[in-house]
């Protein structure tokens, strides 16, 4: 998988920051605070406007009704009924004089008089109000909008003043202009609206302050979590206060302490296990050397021994050789685990190196090779030999001919070495575990009877991946590939059989090119 370009990484980081800014907790807190403040301000404005408007209109209505009632009572006391047009006009004018700028309309049966003869009253005094005044015995009022302007119309019947409250048939209406009250309530609404913006700004500032107070420990906890995930098991957060965030920080520290304790214990156990394997392998080398010498002598003289004794001698020799390989493999694995394995790298022609490895084991005539010359890489020849011996040895033992070895250089700075066979291949579960230590896929691949000599041809450190081997060969091959900065993959061929692919970089960095003594 190719690396992401620098520009792509920058864009990816910018996108992540943008997502955090858009969907972050700080933004949500600020938006929530602002929305709450805005809704509160709008609600308060609406309630204040409604109450103020109601209060202003109620005061105006009460004043208009009381003024009309009092002024009518004063003027009607000396007014003779039934009136004519002239007296009715005088009545309307007198009532209007005591009401200021209000227009007064007096009606008696078919007669009608207006205090301001230029005023249009027909559009402002509705038929419904007239009917209500005519049918009732008290003051009635109605707010109307005429030509886009608000007015308050108050009407009341005039009763005889003889004590029995009989209707006289005289009706009085006053028209009050409500534009001043409308302007007052509008000014109040504007002032409340003007105060909404400071309220929202203050809410945003308080939200930022609250978000900082809440998110600061959350950011510290997130930073500590990332450090813990990166391997810094000593990362902790300071616990302040006794709220939920403090409980969360305390729980994180307790979890980190438990994880660090477990990690320390596991590392100690792993180190002990590695030392045990290394010590056991080292201690076995001396007696195994003696056993190998004795087994070699017995095998050389096996033809002169009785058949049963000869078979036993050959069996002891084979098992001693296999035990020696296992000990060498264990020591090699312990070097990788301890980080002591080093590359003794030098520029080589990889095709020549592979040919030499195949020729050393007498496999050249049993393979189909495509090894173009001129592919030069910086590798450790011995470790490449171990990889080739393991992959090709496994193909010969457990696969079926033809076994092909193909070397190729790709244009992306890598070189690949494929080892393929036409055997039964590997099932999916075996392919997933083929590089595990001590894993043997005995049932996955068959063993050729002509390949028994291949067990003896595997060099020191090569191991065996399947069947009669130690189960460490493929694991050692993969570790050697990784030590070069490469890898090994396994797949199933469409035509049948397994294919192992070794990928190595054509060039190394300076650190990878350093040569050290192989331990």
Provide a quick synopsis of the model.
By secondary structure, this protein is of the alpha+beta class. The protein contains 13 helices and 12 strands.
What does this protein look like?
With 519 residues, this protein is of the alpha+beta class. The chain contains 13 helices and twelve strands. The strands form three sheets. A five-stranded antiparallel β-sheet has the order 2-1-5-4-3, sandwiched between helices. A five-stranded mixed β-sheet has the order 7-9-10-12-11. It is rod-shaped and about 165 Å long.
User: How far apart lie the N and C ends?
Assistant: 32 Å
Report the C-alpha radius of gyration, rounded. 52 Å
The global form is rod-shaped
Order of helices and strands: HHHEEHEEEHHHEHEEHEEHHHEEH
Summarize the biggest pleated sheet. Answer: 5 strands, antiparallel
Beta-strand content: 15-25%
Proportion of residues in helical segments? 55-70%
Record field, number of beta strands:
12
Strand order of the largest sheet: 2-1-5-4-3
Number of helical segments with 4 or more residues: 13
Helix-strand makeup class: alpha+beta
Low-pLDDT parts are: 443-468, 508-519
What is the mean pLDDT? 78
